[in-house]
Amino acid sequence: xxxxxxxxxxxxxxxxxxxxxxxxxxxxxxxxxxxxxxxxxxxxxxxxxxxxxxxxxxxxxxxxxxxxxxxxxxxxxxxxxxxxxxxxxxxxxxxxxxxxxxxxxxxxxxxxxxxxxxxxxxxxxxxxxxx
Length: 131
Known about the structure:
By secondary structure, the chain is α/β, with parallel strands linked by helices. 46% of the residues lie in helices and 12% in strands. It has one domain: 3-Layer(aba) Sandwich (Rossmann fold), CATH 3.40.50.1010. It has seven helices and five strands. The chain has a five-stranded parallel sheet with strand order 3-2-1-4-5. Helix 1 (11-19) packs across helix 3 (38-51).
């Protein structure tokens, strides 16, 4: 487990940074105090693979961000089931649950652009919607 992080970025936060989408400035300001789950990184890598010609180009693009990536462990896989009850009511994907699980484990704030997360019942995870 990584030592500490104040923020856990979800996939849309990373995509906002890469695409300079609305709110990217706010996410960029958090980057040096943030971490990302390997699950969320996989989502971004897979999306970029559709748009970028090679794995090395994707790696180079993401290397500039100097991300701290947390491996997804067996324990975290089981912990993520805590959030499964919100799949239908709030549309939480596996990546969303990975972000929330890591944030809860680190006692960090989950960062997303998904406004529906604001309507989640108290999960013990602070949530920042960056746009």
